[in-house]
Specification:
There is one protein chain. This protein is α+β, with helices and mostly antiparallel strands and 115 residues long. The chain contains 2 helices and 6 strands, in the order βαβββββα. The strands form 3 sheets. It has a two-stranded parallel sheet with strand order 1-6. Strand 4 and strand 5 form a beta hairpin.
């Protein structure tokens, strides 16, 4: 079992080289990429490559073909039924504040990790 962050604000899945090695994937399997990732705080990350991996969670499988550098992006979280959308998704072009307090409900089986 591997613990991964669920990052619903991310457009890609990311893995460290160490995690990729644990999965038994040689770095020679990585394809070059020109993708540049921008983190929430604005820092820039250049992935070492792209790889296609088969991912399974609770008997749900899909192929992850995204940038490599562990977190699952929104698309993967949704495909694995780890998150669901209950209201309309609104994209904002800048940072801001919500008028009211929000509420987040987490599955009782989820393990909370704070880095």
């Amino acid at each position: 079992m591997y613990l991964l962050n669920l990052d619903t604000g991310a457009d890609v899945n990311v893995l460290s080289r160490k995690m990729l090695s644990k999965f038994g994937v040689p770095e020679s399997q990585l394809r070059d990429t020109k993708i540049i990732l921008e983190a929430f705080g604005g820092s820039v990350v250049k992935p070492v490559g792209v790889v296609s991996l088969k991912v399974e969670c609770k008997n749900v499988e899909f192929s992850a073909d995204k940038a490599v550098h562990p977190s699952l992006g929104l698309e993967s979280c949704a495909k694995l039924n780890l998150v669901t959308l209950h209201k309309e998704n609104i994209d904002y072009l800048s940072l801001g504040k919500f008028k009211d307090k929000g509420e987040i409900q987490v599955n009782n089986e989820a393990i909370l990790l704070i880095n």
